[in-house]
């Protein structure tokens, strides 16, 4: 890859990102910001954050194939990547079946979308694929720079690395709550997992594949499941959990800091950056 993400990054919904926050994240030592929530194909937010920073990488996590045609995102990619060489990574994905009535051929849709990106000269090494299951991980390995799994655990990272082999990027997301009180942390973290993800088939299928039971997934998720999907505790404990992904074979892990009411994550990011040894 020509884009170097660094070991640690920050994942945040597009509605909670800004050029000002991107500058703060860069100053804390994180390597990459991931724009979540199906950002639009114009990639304007990515460009604005890149313009505002000097070395930070910006990635999309992810542009949704159902809502943004390849023909729309390809010229945006060319504009942004041309202006900021080696600092932009296009993450794309098929989303989940509950989001669209057209979700009838998901695997074929991914293949056709990647084919079209090829035809439009979006480089393989400039894109990654949202991937959880074996077939899509294979596509990520064969047709893109690698995989960006969401709502996973280090156990999934280990199996994904085995599937991808040594040459592909593996960059999972992991939610975090910096709170020493496990009850309070679960109270904050559970809604971020339950709605919508515990009602979406692709995520629940992946959790079952990892050994979680229907009882774990039901009723907002068992405490054990929430603890697995939302790292909580002191900044040092959360940092150790994130590092488990790297130990399991990830190249990069991006933390999604869960805060009450989408409040400013900067104080928690500052504590986390210190615990990770970034500053």
Automatic annotation (TrEMBL):
<dbReference type="InterPro" id="IPR050766">
    <property type="entry name" value="Bact_Lucif_Oxidored"/>
</dbReference>
<keyword id="KW-0560">Oxidoreductase</keyword>
<dbReference type="GO" id="GO:0016491">
    <property type="term" value="F:oxidoreductase activity"/>
</dbReference>
<dbReference type="InterPro" id="IPR019922">
    <property type="entry name" value="Lucif-like_OxRdatse_MSMEG_4141"/>
</dbReference>
<feature type="domain" description="Luciferase-like">
    <location>
        <begin position="20"/>
        <end position="252"/>
    </location>
</feature>
<protein>
    <submittedName>
        <fullName>LLM class F420-dependent oxidoreductase</fullName>
        <ecNumber>1.-.-.-</ecNumber>
    </submittedName>
</protein>
<dbReference type="InterPro" id="IPR011251">
    <property type="entry name" value="Luciferase-like_dom"/>
</dbReference>
<dbReference type="Pfam" id="PF00296">
    <property type="entry name" value="Bac_luciferase"/>
</dbReference>
<dbReference type="InterPro" id="IPR036661">
    <property type="entry name" value="Luciferase-like_sf"/>
</dbReference>
């Amino acid at each position: 890859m020509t884009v170097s993400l660094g070991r640690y990054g920050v994942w945040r919904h597009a509605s909670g990102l800004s050029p000002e926050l991107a500058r703060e994240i860069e100053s804390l030592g994180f390597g990459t910001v991931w724009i979540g929530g199906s950002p639009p194909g114009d990639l304007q937010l990515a460009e604005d954050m890149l313009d505002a920073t000097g070395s930070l990488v910006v990635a999309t996590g992810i542009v949704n194939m159902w809502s943004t045609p390849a023909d729309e995102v390809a010229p945006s990619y060319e504009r942004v990547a041309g202006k900021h060489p080696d600092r932009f990574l296009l993450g794309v994905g098929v989303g989940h079946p509950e989001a669209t009535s057209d979700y009838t051929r998901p695997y074929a849709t991914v293949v056709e979308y990647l084919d079209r990106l090829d035809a439009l000269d979006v480089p393989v090494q400039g894109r990654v694929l949202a991937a959880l299951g074996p077939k899509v991980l294979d596509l990520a390995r064969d047709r893109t720079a690698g995989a960006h799994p969401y709502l996973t655990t280090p156990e999934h990272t280990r199996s994904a690395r085995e599937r991808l082999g040594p040459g592909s990027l593996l960059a999972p997301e992991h939610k975090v709550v910096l709170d020493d009180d496990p009850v309070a942390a679960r109270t904050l973290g559970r809604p971020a997992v339950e709605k919508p993800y515990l009602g979406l088939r692709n995520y629940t299928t992946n959790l079952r594949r990892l050994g979680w039971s229907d009882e774990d997934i039901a009723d907002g998720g068992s405490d054990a499941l929430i603890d697995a999907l939302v790292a909580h505790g002191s900044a040092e404990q959360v940092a150790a959990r994130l590092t488990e992904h790297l130990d399991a074979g990830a190249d990069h892990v991006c933390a999604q800091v869960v805060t009450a009411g989408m409040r400013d994550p900067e104080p928690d990011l500052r504590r986390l950056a210190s615990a990770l040894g970034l500053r």
